[in-house]
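Hi, here's the filled form for the chain we discussed.

Project: internal
Contact: R.S.
Residues: 134
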Amino acid sequence: MDIQNIARRSFYLRLIYALCLCGATWTHLQVALAHGLGWDYGGVAQLTRIYWTSLTFIDPLAVLLLLVVPRVGLIVCVAVIVTDVAHNSWFALHNPIRLDLYLSQIAFLLFVACTVRTAWRGAAVRREVSRVIN
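And the returned structure, exactly as it came back:
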């Protein structure tokens, strides 16, 4: 596979990740607009409130990083989806949750886990090409 194909695949994967994170941003933004940033989500634990509210800002930051600083964006993207699924899995043991949102998070986690290596390799291609040319 040539360098351009690797870079192109990485870009498309990062674009898919970014679009998924935009959807998550929209979900968190709707909650913030309806209830405010200080909402207690119906009485959940303080750390859960802080985590869920922080995703209103972290998700769009990950989107920006995926497109501007790809490797940093990939690290943030993986951290977000791993912690989100881990947290929401723990939360679901003790509370009712929206199954559709939870299953979409798990699907996204599986997709990222299966494709992030390709996205990572292609994200470095631009830097490698620059080094060879110079």
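Let me know if anything looks off before we file it.
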